[in-house]
Amino acid sequence: MFYEPTKGHGLPHDPSKAIVAPRPIGWISTLNREGKINLAPYSFFNAFSTRPFLVWFSSEGQKDSASFAEETGEFVANLVSRELAEKMNRTAVDAPRGVSEFDYADLAMAPSRLVAPPRVAAAPAALECRVTEILRPRALDGTQTSAVVVAGEVVGVHIDDAFLNDGRFDIVRAGNVGRLGYMDYSSISDIFSMRRPRWGKD
């Protein structure tokens, strides 16, 4: 089949998120100027540079995570392990502003080192970030979309020693959770390796 997204797909459910999948989940913790804490999962999340280490998350609409990050210039991207998947899902609740998702999901907080927002204590890894820019992308016709893209530089990295194996982060042990389409998720349980080819060396 072929379809043009602006004209509809004709399927019972939108396939776009299932096609662009799996997507890593940035479990974003933020703090506003009044000290209110927010924790929410974002599957529009990824890294886009290593030097400097830059990550981004995108909010479909001006939600608390984007608002708080814009207010204070900081956020933490926590990794979701398979063991934390159900609690992560609880933090996706549309709670009133000011309600702590940490409390709602019965999650312990841990202090960050270089930024004010706390991190998820049980997360296998967490990235402390300072906001570098906030983008509001436009559509082809020039109209502003509802997306709010928050980019940040990672200034501190926490790794639980239990997930280090011979100096490498063990993503299978952590069972990194990714978002698929619809209501589906994946957890890493198998990996394979391939060396990048070098011209003239194959």
CATH class: Mainly Beta
Q: Tell me the number of helical segments per DSSP (H or I, 4 or more residues long).
A: 5
Biggest sheet strand line-up: 3-2-6-9-10-5-4
**Count of discrete domains:** 1
Largest sheet: 7 strands, antiparallel
Subunit organisation of the chains: single chain
Q: What structural class is derived from the secondary structure elements?
A: mainly beta
Range of helix content: 10-25%
* Radius of gyration of CA atoms, rounded to a whole number: 18 Å
SSE sequence, one letter per element? HEEEEEHEHHEEEEEEHEE
Q: Which geometry do the CA atoms define?
A: globular
Query: How far apart, in Å, are the first and last alpha carbons?
Result: 38 Å
At the fold tier of CATH, the topology name is: Pnp Oxidase, Chain A
List low-confidence stretches: none
**Total count of strands:** 14
CATH homologous superfamily, by name? Electron Transport, Fmn-binding Protein, Chain A
CATH architecture, please?
A: Roll
Q: What's the overall average pLDDT, rounded?
A: 94
Task: Characterise this structure.
GO terms for molecular function: FMN binding; oxidoreductase activity, acting on the CH-NH group of donors, NAD or NADP as acceptor. This is Flavin reductase family protein. It holds the Pfam family Flavin_Reduct. Residues 18-171 form the Flavin reductase like domain. It comes from Mesorhizobium waimense. The strands form four sheets. Strands 3-2-6-9-10-5-4 form a seven-stranded antiparallel beta sheet, covered by helices on one side. A three-stranded antiparallel beta sheet has the order 1-13-14, with no helix packed on it. With 202 residues, the chain is mainly beta. The protein has five helices and 14 strands. The radius of gyration is 18 Å and the shape is globular. The model has no long low-confidence stretch (mean pLDDT 94). It has a single domain (23-187), classed as Pnp Oxidase, Chain A, CATH 2.30.110.10. It has helices at residues 16-19, 64-72, 85-90, 101-104, 171-174; strands at 23-24, 26-31, 37-42, 45-50, 53-60, 74-78, 109-110, 119-120, 125-135, 147-159, 164-165, 168-169, 177-179, 185-187.
